[in-house]
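Can anyone check this?
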Amino acid sequence: MVALFSSLNPLPSLPDYTGPYKVGTVDVEIPVKDISPSSSLFPSGDSSAAIPTVAFRIFYPCSPPKHSARPVRWIQTPQRSIVSAYARFLGAGSALSSAFSYLSALLYYMTIPAHRDAPLLTPQAGVSQWPVTIFSHGLGGTRNSYSHFCGSMASHGLVVIAPDHRDGSAPIAHIRATKDTEATTADYRSISHQPSKQTYAARDAQVRIRLWELSLVHEALQKLNSGDEAIHNLAIHKGETSKFANDANTLKMFHGRLAVTQPGSITFAGHSFGAATAVQLVKSVYYTNTRKIDTSAIFDPSASLTPSLASQITPSTPLVLLDPWGLPLTSPSLSALNALPLPCFSTRTSPGGSNVLAILSEAFFKWRGNLGDIQRALADPSSPSPSRPQSRIFYPVKSAHLSQSDFGLLFPNVTKYVAKADEPQRTMTLNVRAALQMLREAGIQGVADTSSEDREVVGDDDDQSGKKGDWKILSTDEGSVRGWVALSAQGDVGKKKMASGDLSDGAVAV
C-alpha cells in the first residue's frame, strides 16, 4: 500500500513560492475569552456544542531566519488521527481507514516551504503595513489545505490568515484545552449535497459557526495589530529554542504591521464552501449595518458583530472566490439576504464588481446548476450596463475542484487520471496571478509584481499598446492567456464556451 501511495504522490513537498519574499508561518490558537470575554462560546448559545478557541495559520513575508527551525509539516499533529480522518472523509471503510492511518510515517515528510515563526519582514518603502487576506477553507479542508495559494500570496507581500473551521466541515479538528475547558475534537459531519429542507438547515448551521469564527479571527487581528497582551497563543511549539518560539515574541511582531483598521482594507477569500462563507459574511455584516435587516438566522449581530467588523465591510471590500459553491447561497430561510446584491452593487453609486474575482474550475463551470447560482449571486441586479464594472469570473481549462487546493499539487496523478486535470502547478499559478492583479487594480498597497516567468513572458515585457505588468490575466479577450477563459457574471456564458463540454445538473463533490 505504501508503494502504491508513493506512486500517486511523487512530490516530497510542495513547490517553492515564486514571489520576491520569503514566507514565514506561525500556528495560532487563541481562547475565545481572550478575544471577546463577553462572547458566547457558540453562536447559538448552546453550551453542549461549545467552541472555546479559534485557530488559524498565518502566512506572511519574512526575513530569512538566521537559524533553521523544525520544518512545517503539511499534516498537522496528531498525524495518525488526521490521516485516518481523511480516509473516512474519502469514504474508506473503518478497516481501510485504520490501515491508511499508518501511512502517516510517509505523509510526515510532506512539508510546507515556509519558515516556522520567522521574523516578520519590515514593509518596503512607501508601505507602512502589510495588506491582509482571510481565507476560509472548503469541505474536507483545514488551515493547511490551501497552503500553496496562501503562501504564494504571502510571497508577494500579503499576510494571509487561514482559519480552521470547527463546524464539522474539516475531516477532524483538534481543539486544545484552555484553563477553563478540556481538549476535544470536532468531527466531520456527513451532510447531503442535494438540496432539501434538512440539507439547508444543516448547512445554515455550519455557515453560522463559520461566520462567528471569522468575526473572532477579525477581532483577533485587531488585537494583534494593537499589541494587546491579553492574547495568549495555545499553539506553542515545545522544545523550540528560537527567540520567536514563544507566544509573546511571535505574536508581538505583528504589532502595528497589519492593514486591518482602514475600512475595506481586508480581503475575504475562500474555496468552495469557504467562498460561499466569504460571500455570506460580507453581505450579512454589510446589510445588518446599512439596512438594519435581520440576519440573526445566519449571523447574530448582538453576539457576533463588533464595531470594527461593521466598519471594515464596505462596497470596496475585495473578494477572492475560488470555485464557489452555490447551495449555501440559496437557502430558503435566507431568501431575504440572498436576494440582496453584493455590497459593491448595493447602491447606484457603488463602485461595481472590479473588486470581486471568482475563479471556477472547469468541473464547476460544467456544473450548470451551480454556475447559474454563482452568476446570480455575483451579478449586478440593476442592469448589465457598461457604466460600472461587473464581477470578474474566469476558469482555467482542464482543471478540477482539487486544482485550487494543495491536493492538486501533492497528488497530480490522481487529479490527472481521475479528475482529468492537467498542469496542476500552472493552474495554481493562474489562480494566484489573477488574485494578485485584482488586488493591485483594487488599490491594495504593497502587492509585489508578478515575475515575468510566472507571466510566461517571452521577449519584450511590453505589449503593442505599451501596457506593462500582469494586466493580461484579467483581460476578457479570448486567448490573452493560454487556457484561461473569461465568463460573464450576467448568466450569458456564450454558446461557443457552453459547447466546449457536456453540461450537467449533477452535484460535484466539494
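Reply from J.R.: I decoded it. Residues 1-12, 239-246, 492-510 have pLDDT under 50 and may be disordered.
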